[in-house]
Amino acid sequence: MTKHLLTAALSIAILTTPAFPAAKKAPKESPAGPPMLWQDPGDVAARDLAAGPGGVAHQPHGPFKFVREDMDGTSPKFVVTDADGTKWSVKLDAEAHPEAVASRLVWAAGYFADEEYYLSSFQVQGIPELHRGEKYVEPNGVVHNARFKRSVKGEAKEGPWKWKDNPFSGTRELNGLRVMMALINNWDLKDVNNAIYEYEGRKMYLVKDLGASFGSTGIRVTRAAGKGNLAAYTDSKFITEVKPPVVSFGTPSRPALSLAYNVQDFTSRVNMEWIGKQIPIEDAKWIGSILARLTPQQIENAFAAAGYSPREIVGFAKVVEDRIADLNGL
After folding, report:
1. What confidence score (pLDDT) does residue 288 get?
2. Rounded-to-integer distance, Cα 181 and Cα 252, Å
3. How far, in Å, CA of 19 to CA of 25, rounded?
4. CB count in 10 Å sphere of residue 267
5. Measured between alpha carbons, how far is 67 from 63 in angstroms, rounded to an integer?
6. How far apart are CA 175 and CA 221, in angstroms?
7. How large is the angle between the packed helices 172-183 and 281-291, nearest 10 degrees?
8. Chain centre distance of CA 84
9. Which of 170, 180, 198, 215 is the most exposed place for a label (fewest CB within 10 A)?
10. Are the C-beta atoms of 194 and 159 separated by less than 8 Å?
11. How far apart are CA 211 and CA 227, in angstroms?
12. What pLDDT digit, counting tens, does each position of 77-89 carry?
């Protein structure tokens, strides 16, 4: 079974382990089968959302050794190895909590997702002064509030894939993924946040960066409100319009007008709005019916695994449950 990002196994017999074996270099011959975005998650109620796609066996454990700082993206990140020599991407700041939850929920619905874990405190050997995220690191190398994402040697990564141009356009599975992004309020739907991985000729498509979730419906001046913010998530609009045979959602919404000074970014985000608009009601109800198999405890377990407080766990879980009910009530 895989030691990395992709979940939902080619065999779903073991639900506490990742989806398929570690990705290998893409073969030169033609793919062995059609590309995959989703596969039947089977007994959803049996999925372990506390451990997530990687299961208990793949949890990171120290001692951790610093490898390098990662300057990609907007969040502070660095790479470590653990006691087994497994390499992990460690992300700090506001995305650490929501990303760990989001990966669990999309995996529970049958989509591929990263193997991610949240650690509230851990020590890193040999960590230098970071260019970003230094405030999360104590002088003795103890680091607080981080998301760990598993990686594996020999992974075959392609991409990114585009929301508007991919093999699944118009399918129930892609429309279901669009609904999932609205349900978790993931507004950062840039194509660069999508990835393709290949295993034995089969291409697996996933959204690999889910950190801008469980907050506002779009980017705001105060970015923290857009990520893992219970008040913002609770107050946000989920379903904005129902005009049979389609339904529209509030995420992603256009950014605050005060951010229009960055014309390129503002325009690109306005052009993402369609992702949450005019989705066939039957496809929204389809993904809703899958999510309805989750128990309230499973949903709470996903938020607990990401380090939220008891009050936040209950609050976030209630919003998710209400939204699942809304989908099934269409």
Report:
1. 98
2. 8
3. 17
4. 12
5. 13
6. 29
7. 70
8. 25
9. 170
10. yes
11. 7
12. 999 999 999 999 9
Cα 41 from Cα 328, distance rounded (Å): 18
C-alpha closest to that of 190 among 163, 168, 214, 215: 163
Does a structural domain hold residue 178?
yes
Residues 192 and 308: their CA atoms lie apart, in Å, by: 28
For residue 204, CA distances in Å to 148, 175, 229 come to 21, 17, 31
Whole-angstrom distance, CA of residue 78 vs CA of residue 122: 14
DSSP letters for 225-268: GGSS-HHHHHHS-SEEEEETTEEEES-SPPPPGGGTTSHHHHHH
Q: State the residue range of the domain holding 113.
A: 53-328
Q: Considering the chain, what is the average pLDDT of its residues? A: 88
The H or E element that residue 163 is part of is: none
CB 78 within 8 A of CB 130: yes
Is residue 217 helix, strand or coil? coil
* Residue in 33, 38, 22, 11 with CA at minimum distance from that of residue 283: 38
Residue 228 resides in a domain:
yes
Q: Are strands 116-125 and 64-70 parallel, antiparallel or unpaired?
A: parallel
Provide the domain count of the chain: 1
In a domain, 24, yes or no: no
CA-based radius of gyration for the chain? 19
For residue 260, tell me if it sits in a domain: yes
- Residue 161, amino acid: W
The amino acid occupying position 4 is: H
- Cα 130 to chain center, whole Å? 25
- pLDDT tens-digit readout, 195-205: 998 866 788 99
Is the pTM higher than 0.85? The answer reads: yes
Instruction: Take residue 231 and report the two structure tokens written for it.
Output: 């008040």
User: What are 15-44's pLDDT values in tens digits?
Assistant: 333 343 344 344 444 456 899 999 999 999
CA distances from 42 to 37, 262, 296 (A): 16, 45, 18
Within 10 angstroms of residue 261's Cβ, the number of other Cβ atoms is 8
